[in-house]
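User: I'm putting together notes for a lab meeting next week and I want to include a structural view of one of the chains we've been expressing. I don't have a solved structure, so I'd like a prediction I can at least talk through. The sequence is below, exactly as it appears in our construct file.
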Amino acid sequence: MPAEKEQIFKILESNFQGCKLDAKDMTGDKDHWEVHISHPSFSGKSRIEQHRAVMNVLTPLNIHAVSLKILSN
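Assistant: Thanks for the context. Below is the predicted structure for the 73-residue chain, given as structure tokens.
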């Protein structure tokens, strides 16, 4: 089942409390997303560690493709 924007926001906000977040459906089919997220927990982590942290949280949503832009506060 495709992921809704609200689902993405809910799961990311519950795991990265206080994050700044934006998500855009790239193709209109709700399984290709561009996600921008900013949270202090990403500070000092490698890009791979940051991406793994976000993707581990998003895995239950069964999204086909995610483009991430991650910033630390």
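A couple of points you could mention at the meeting. Residues 5-71 form a domain with the GMP Synthetase; Chain A, domain 3 fold (CATH 3.30.300.90). Residues 6 and 23 are 9 Å apart (CA to CA).

User: Perfect, that's what I needed.
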